[in-house]
Amino acid sequence: MDNLSVMSISVDHRTDSAPRMQEILTQNGDLIVGRFGIHDPEEINHGLITLNLRSDMGRIQNMMDTLNGLEGIKVNHMQV
């Protein structure tokens, strides 16, 4: 059964990492129920994206592994 969960993505050096990160999120768009993104007003190259997800842990883990492979990207995940 697919459960709801929350993923946070910290993005450093947004201008370098953002295009590839966006491709990964688009490829996994069917997992994403909701998305909220903000940038740090003190640091222009830092952002935070929060995703609400509905999927099995295998697909979520695959997306996390791919995102974590990008420079400047840190991912956390929590099941609710």
Quick rundown:
The chain is of the alpha+beta class and 80 residues long. Helices cover 32% and strands 49% of the residues.
What does this structure look like?
By secondary structure, the protein is an alpha+beta fold. It has one domain: Alpha-Beta Plaits. The protein contains two helices and four strands. A four-stranded antiparallel sheet has the order 2-3-1-4, covered by helices on one side. The chain is globular, with a radius of gyration of 12 Å. The two termini are 14 Å apart. The relative contact order is 0.35. The mean pLDDT is 91.
CATH class: Alpha Beta
Instruction: Based on the coordinates given, report the CATH architecture.
Output: 2-Layer Sandwich
Order of helices and strands: EHEEHE
Residue windows where pLDDT falls under 50 for at least 5 positions: none
* Shape label: globular
Look at the helices and sheets and give the structural class.
Answer: alpha+beta
* Beta-strand proportion: over 45%
Descriptive key words:
Alpha-Beta Plaits, 80 residues, alpha+beta
Q: How is this fold's topology laid out?
A:
Elements lengths: L2 E10 L1 H14 L4 E9 L2 E13 L1 H12 L4 E7 L1
Antiparallel strand pairs: 1-3, 1-4, 2-3
